[in-house]
Amino acid sequence: MADPTFLFDGRPTPYVEGQSVGAALTAAGIRSWRTTRLGGRPRGLFCGIGICFDCLVTVDDRPNERACLVPVRESMRVTTQEGTGHGDLEV
Amino acid sequence: MSDVVVVGGGIVGAACAYYAARAGLEVTVVDRGPVGAGTTSRGEGNILVSDKAPGPELALALWSRELWLEVGADLGDEPLELERKGGLVVATSEPAMGPLAAFARGQQGAGVDAVPVPAEELHAHEPHLAPDLAGGVLYPQDMQVQPVAAAAALLAAARAQGAQVRTGVEARGLARDGRGAVTGLATDRGTLPTRAVVNAAGTWGGALSERLGCAVPVLPRRGFILVTEPLPRVVRHKVYSADYVDNVASSDAGLETSTVVEATLGGTVLIGASRERVGYDDTFSREVVRRLAAQATRIFPFLARVRVMRTYHGFRPYCPDHLPVVGEDPRVPGVFHACGHEGAGIGLAPATGRLLADLLSGAEPGVDPAPYSPGRFLEVARG
Questions:
Q1: What is the predicted pLDDT for the residue at B382?
Q2: What average pLDDT does the structure give for chain B?
Q3: Is A52 inside any structural domain?
Q4: Where are the domains of chain B?
Q5: Please, what CATH class does the domain formed by B4-75+146-218+321-382 belong to?
Q6: B197 and B334 Cβ atoms separated by less than 8 Å
Q7: What is the pLDDT of residues B100-156, one digit of tens each?
Q8: Which residues of B touch A87 (CB under 8 A)?
Q9: Closest Cα of chain B to A62: distance in Å?
Q10: How far apart are CA A45 and CA B141, in angstroms?
Q11: If you measure CA to CA, which chain A residue comes closest to B300?
Q12: Which ipTM value was assigned to this complex?
């Protein structure tokens, strides 16, 4: 049976049960999934243990989840977070 | 020998040092902790005229606002995070609109720029406001600073004029000569020779005044602030509900909350404001935080989708008559008070500092100092 998958920016991405979003993305060769608010610089895992908040990502439309802490679930929709992740509130 | 030792490195002490140094006085600032780490760091950075009724506090606020603009011109708006954003006071229901409009009319006669905003125009000013508000008043003069950054910038400017800033030094009492004149401030690091001492200890101004032998009544009111995750510029003004004014002026001991919402340059949105008379009880209150969050979403429904990242709380130091105490203490000449600003200390800091510098250097004060004088408490005591 094939590995289960979640969606990263719409693409089915494999993961292993019990893996964090950050670990699964890294295993899939994806190293950045957020841009900084001011400079638009790429960010991914830094501390990997929930302290630094560098690996923030949008999970099921909820921005600012820590990729290193959130366990992946089947069919989860993970999307690259641009800046605050609340661009929809822009007026 | 200093001309003056300022006790307290918060926004008020920093403003006192800034103006006293500019007046050519030898200034030393001491703080038992780091700069701006006490009362100054626990508020929102309000520079408000909108919440003040005509009277001595409004007069001080209007002058202080002008001085903040001068400070911005001197030091640059950026290091202070000075934002000329304006305030928008909203009424959540029709019955609240009448008193708000009447309050604004009274302020207009006292030099406040207050522009009534009908309900249908509110969203042109604040697009995310709830659709069913009754109306509001726009106050273009309201502003905001980052208070700790502003205190640090004022102290840096004072140092550039020769002032000394010493952190980790706790004031213990006065040194006086045989005739009672102040000769120094005793501290845990020895006595600092000076002819004048300024009590700018914020929330602890009452306790310090006792150590200086001239007690003034400065009492704590606890207030909480919620901090959201960083957002785009979703809130443009300082937005608050009309009942904030009543709560600030109230003498009720119980918990009072009103809605105050504003963005910071850092991207977070600050949500206040609560007032409680619980002494110096520094514990967290889930009940207060819950109430503030619920009230804020009433005015800005989008906040329901936004996370609170952290909260902070502190004490707003008030005098029983809700006016700050600024001036020389008649019981101990040489001791000057500059505290008791409650929630308005950031806004009132430059006027307080300038008034004190004028009093210290013998210049003509820019405002009538009588309403803020420590002597008013003595008159009450004498009956």
A1: 55
A2: 95
A3: yes
A4: 4-75+146-218+321-382, 87-140+219-318
A5: alpha beta
A6: yes
A7: 999 999 999 999 999 999 999 999 999 999 999 999 999 999 999 999 999 999 999
A8: 232
A9: 9
A10: 44
A11: A89
A12: 0.89
Interface of B with A in 183-242 (CB under 8 A): 229-234
For the stretch B311-362, pLDDT in tens is: 999 999 999 999 999 999 999 999 999 999 999 999 999 999 999 999 999 9
The domain B87-140+219-318 belongs to what CATH superfamily? D-Amino Acid Oxidase, subunit A, domain 2 (3.30.9.10)
Beta strand residue intervals within chain B, DSSP E: 4-7, 27-31, 46-47, 87-91, 115-118, 135-139, 143-144, 164-167, 171-176, 182-187, 190-193, 197-199, 219-228, 238-241, 256-263, 269-275, 308-318, 325-328, 335-339
Mean pLDDT across B363-374: 96
Q: What is the CATH number of the domain that holds A36?
A: 3.10.20.440
Contact B317, B339 (CB under 8 A): yes
Whether residue A38 lies within 8 A of chain B, CB to CB, comes out as: no
Confidence of residue B243 (pLDDT cuts 50, 70, 90): confident
Q: Report yes or no: B124 at the A interface, CB cutoff 8 Å.
A: no
Counted domains in chain A:
1
Give the C-alpha separation, B53 to A45, whole Å.
Answer: 53
CB-based contact A64 B229, cutoff 8 Å: yes
Could you tell me the residue range of the domain that residue A65 belongs to? 5-83
CB within 8 Å of chain A, chain B residues 329-368: none
